[in-house]
Design a protein that fits this description.
alpha/beta, binds 5-O-phosphono-beta-D-ribofuranose, single chain, Rossmann fold, 157 residues, five-stranded parallel sheet, globular
């Protein structure tokens, strides 16, 4: 089995229907990843251990998804200098506005690259773009994907 390049963490199994789109795009591009349910609040120690284990294994990018008081991405960011992508999940009465602000509004010095609310596919694509900096094959696939997107839009005429 390939060592993972991306670790996906999500605060609850209830986030999985959204985060399935991250898994789908990583699979499509052939990027090895692992998905774990880890919460900044409910399982802080296990979350930290998972970040350390993934780094030891060669993980290059972390994708963290959570709803409501979504501190998972920020906490992971505090423990690694690898890029951390945050996915605010629409959960609870504020429908993701709370998660968006708690994910994106990091203090200076600790950046979380935050995608839109429930934008799980974009999180995967951003991770692939980061990995493509040192991977010609991924770069080729990303360019082909952009061309396919353009063709499909133009075909809508
Ligand atoms: C967050 O609270 C999770 O990431 C999820 O989006 C939300 C609700 O969690 P559950 O009550 O469904 O476990 O921590």
């Amino acid at each position: 089995m390939d060592a993972i390049k991306v670790l996906i963490l999500m605060g609850s199994k209830s986030d999985l229907p959204v985060m399935q789109k991250t898994e789908d795009i990583l699979k499509e591009f052939g990027v090895p990843f692992r998905t774990l349910i880890r919460s900044a609040h409910r399982t802080p120690e296990a979350t930290m251990q998972s970040v350390k284990d993934a780094e030891d294994e060669g993980c290059q990018v972390f994708i963290c998804a959570a709803g409501m008081a979504a501190h998972l991405a920020g906490v992971v960011c505090s423990k690694t200098v690898k890029p951390v992508i945050g996915v605010p999940i629409a959960a609870g009465p504020l429908n993701g506005e709370d998660a968006l602000h708690s994910t994106v509004m990091m203090p200076p010095g600790l950046p979380v690259a935050t995608v839109g609310i429930n934008a799980a596919k974009n999180a995967g694509l951003l991770a692939i773009q980061l990995l493509a900096q040192n991977d010609e094959e991924l770069t080729r696939k990303l360019k082909a994907d952009r061309e396919a997107q353009a063709e499909s839009i133009l075909a809508e005429d």
